[in-house]
Every structure is written in structure tokens, then in C-alpha cells.
Design goal:
The chain is mostly helical. The protein has nine helices and no strands. 42% of the residues are buried.
Length: 211
């Protein structure tokens, strides 16, 4: 993973929000303020506008994203995204690349930092549960194609596992019974964005090409 890899991932994620914004807003409207999609669209747009190619190393690139994003969001989910960028920045400080088999350990560090920042626990039906599933699924994997397949499968499985559970964190916990049968917007957002980032690799694996 290099700065170029990171830049491409952000570009794909940002582009995906053109069709994901309304979907995520609709999911959030059933349990919250209905603005998860709008917030992520704005935040990813800010990320995409940062010229991280000018950064001296991967850690500095992540930190540049965190700094730019921090001024654009005050939401709890947005704060966790910024926490993720800062955690990744510290973990890759001074490094020009991150070996693929270390990505799982980085995701574990992001999960732990997000838990501490959000005062959340595993099992509460939040994005933390998806981060945990993602970290465990890709731990030690050495190639981007395998990581893409494992990541998408793990995040889809996490949505299925938690869909029929009540939410126990944030505003959604107020409507715990109502949340049963619904996807947590943060979990859904992570799954959809990771799918968008890895779509090209998924298509390659299936022996097809993107339109």
C-alpha cells in the first residue's frame, strides 16, 4: 500500500457517494437524523481535494487527510473516521509503503482507537463490529485481491449477523426495538464504501471488466 494506493481508494470512495448518499441517508433516517450519507459525502469530498501526493511519506498523507477532515465534521461517525486516519498516520509515520500483510494489524489498531474514542464496545451493533470483522478477516493476508474478497465477505456477514439485533449505542439505542431488522448506517456505509473501493478487483476475480 502506497500513497498512490491511498489516493485511488479515496477517489473511488468519493465517487461512490454519488449513488450511496441517498441510500445511507434513508438507512439513517429510520434510526437517527438521516444525514449519514450527506456527512460522508462531504467528508470524502474534503479528503479527495487533498493533494496527498505532495506528502513525504504514507503517515504524513494520512495525517493530512485527518487535519483536513477534522474541520469538516462534528458528527460521531465522522469523528471516528478522523480517528482512523490519525491512527493510520501514527502507525505509518516515516514509511513510504505498508506491506499488505500488515493491513489487518492496522485495522485492529483503528478498531481499538475507535472503541476508545467512541466509548463503544463490541456487540453494540455499530461500525466497531464491522471494523472488528474486517480486521480479523484480512489479518495476515498478503495480496490486494485476496484482501478485497475477504473484506467484502466479512462486512456482508457482519451486516447479516447484526441486522436482527437491537442497537445499543448512540441515538439508535433509544429505538432499540425498532432497530431490530435494520442495518446500522455506519456498518452499512463501511460495507458499501469498501465494496466501491475494491469493485475493480472483484470484477477481475470474476473474469469480467468494468464498463
Amino acid at each position: 500500500m502506497t500513497i498512490q494506493t491511498l489516493a485511488m481508494a479515496i477517489a473511488h470512495a468519493n465517487a461512490s457517494m454519488e449513488h450511496l448518499t441517498d441510500t445511507l441517508n434513508a438507512a439513517d433516517a429510520k434510526l437517527g437524523d438521516g444525514d449519514t450519507g450527506t456527512m460522508l459525502h462531504r467528508l470524502l469530498g474534503v479528503f479527495a481535494a487533498v493533494d496527498i501526493h505532495a506528502a513525504p511519506d504514507l503517515g504524513a498523507a494520512f495525517m493530512a487527510l485527518a487535519k483536513a477532515g477534522a474541520a469538516s465534521t462534528g458528527s460521531s461517525l465522522g469523528t471516528l473516521v478522523i480517528t482512523a486516519m490519525m491512527t493510520a498516520g501514527k502507525a505509518t509515520s516515516g514509511q513510504h509503503e505498508l506491506e499488505w500483510d500488515r493491513l489487518g494489524a492496522l485495522m485492529s489498531a483503528i478498531r481499538d482507537a475507535a472503541m476508545a474514542r467512541g466509548k463503544a464496545e463490541l456487540g453494540a451493533k455499530t461500525i466497531i463490529d464491522s471494523l472488528d470483522a474486517l480486521a480479523r478477516a484480512i489479518d495476515g493476508l498478503q495480496g490486494p485481491d485476496g484482501i478485497a474478497r475477504a473484506a467484502n465477505a466479512a462486512l456482508a456477514s457482519a451486516l447479516t449477523e447484526f441486522r436482527d439485533r437491537p442497537s445499543a449505542m448512540g441515538r439508535a439505542r433509544i429505538f432499540a426495538d425498532k432497530s431490530i431488522g435494520l442495518d446500522d448506517p455506519g456498518m452499512l456505509g463501511l460495507a458499501e464504501i469498501v465494496h466501491a473501493i475494491t469493485a475493480e478487483k472483484d470484477q477481475r476475480h470474476r473474469g469480467t471488466t468494468l464498463a
